[in-house]
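Thanks for the sequence, V.! I ran DUF4145 domain-containing protein right away. Repeating your input here for the record:
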Amino acid sequence: MIDSLSGFLDVIERSNCFKKERFESNIKITTLGFEECIDELFCPKCGDIRRCVVNRVTHNPEFEINEFTESIVVKSLPCLFKATCLQCESETLLLIYKGPEEVELAVLHDTYNGCVTPNSPKEVKYYIDQAYRARSVGAVSASMAMYRSALEWLLYDQGFEKGMLGNKIKTLEEKIEKNNEPKWAVELDIGFLKAIKEIGNGSMHTNGGDIEKQNNIDKNLLELVDIVFAELLDKIYEQPLRSSNNLSKLKEKALAMSK
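Predicted structure:
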């Protein structure tokens, strides 16, 4: 999954698309001159790495590359690219634009994004997708708020319907203490859920008037939350189906052997 400008520039560089170079002091001016390239990118519709065709939609962008610091400044903004999966033909738009503080990359898919799994409830998919879309344009606090909503919907789907998110987590914790928890929560560290709730709350609240606390929410944190959610969704919705399908196949073969 590409969610950073440097990651996308790496794709372009691997495809040998840098052309028309000239030097000014220690600055190399590089114009990106290509119509398309093929590279392996994450496809959210396939749910895995796939070969994708990357096409340039807007004009050829220009980059300034400092040979000593290896820093890259993108000129001629905005720049728009389109990646098309060669397997499912889903499309992803990659927009390089000037953000409030630095050049950013927005990644916009035509399907659900983020760590969603095939059998996740549509409500959970919706909020994780919202979290990913916000994250892709640098709205990290908004993204964290959407992860919090995804967690609340997940617990609601699992039968914890009363109260706000804090009460839902407390009810689950009480069930764990009484050894009455759902199967997926047997080895769950409830601390993960509490942490997501607290960070999500902080992303929406005034925090005593301290806006600087929002600096604790960045893309590295959101990547970690994405990993936690992916493991949780797999444990709840995917593993039981895989086990059930595998058991059915074994029973079918066992029955055939016993005849």
